[in-house]
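Cross-check.
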Amino acid sequence: MRPTHVLLAVLVAAVWGVNFTVIDIGLGHFPPLLFSALRFLAAALPAVLLVGRPKVAWKWIVAVGLVLGVAKFGLLFVGMDAGMPAGLSSLVLQIQAVFTALFACLALGERPTARRLVGMGVALAGIAVAAVDEGTSGPLGAFALVVAAAACWGASNVLTRRAAPPDALNFMVWVSTVPVLPLLALSLALEGPSRDLAALRALDWQGAGTVLYVAWVTTVFGFGAWGWLLRRHAASTVAPFSLLVPVFGMSSAALFLGEPVTPLRWCAAALLVGGVALTSLTGGRPGAPPAAGRRPLPETASTSA
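Predicted model, tokenized:
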């Protein structure tokens, strides 16, 4: 890769990592489900008018929109609102690579290699260490919600691979149109219209900035740049940069939110990142080859928070 391309890949990882800190700040302004709905609304409009018509069947857009947008992000935002630290969330979500491999085995018949099985075991050991660390300092229920979000992310990765979108940005913008109404309905039912209205009436520049960041910087810029890199380089070359996401996530949370990074958390980070690397970055995978001119999306880089 050219130095400028390396810098762009690192920048995208930084944007996605810092996103967890921005989410934490945004949750101080909005109820979690409303915040998630606003994120997708801002990501979809006006981008949906600029990316052209969908390039995959609507059944895949709706399926990924519900699993990724409603389930994964709904659980993540609720978990963080319930007390899951931003830095730890950026780390724990990486266990999605293990769920992706498991679901691909069940749904696509992909048999994991010995190396991948070892990586899954190492990553799960990292989750266990992170759970012990969180159990001494925070609510385990919130931790479980973020793990469940990672499982939904893994399921959406398998659905995305079945959809095989030729343009990742186009796909994500159209996917972003699906969760808006379901998340708004859930917010009204579970968080209450009075709480939602109070948050919207109290909207200030910081609250608006968090919505624009998670929508436009993370989604539109992040996916646009990542897709641009994947069109020019092998997925195995680009994918390792996604392992920098929890590094930037934990660092930004420590710097801006004052979150402590305990020795146990560093140990969990080493195990998780190492396990995800073994699980995800193993070269080619079984199954049909991608269509000519397309590059498969690596499991660790299909999306971010």
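The chain has a mean pLDDT of 87. The chain is about 70% helix and 0% strand. Passed to J.P. for a second look.
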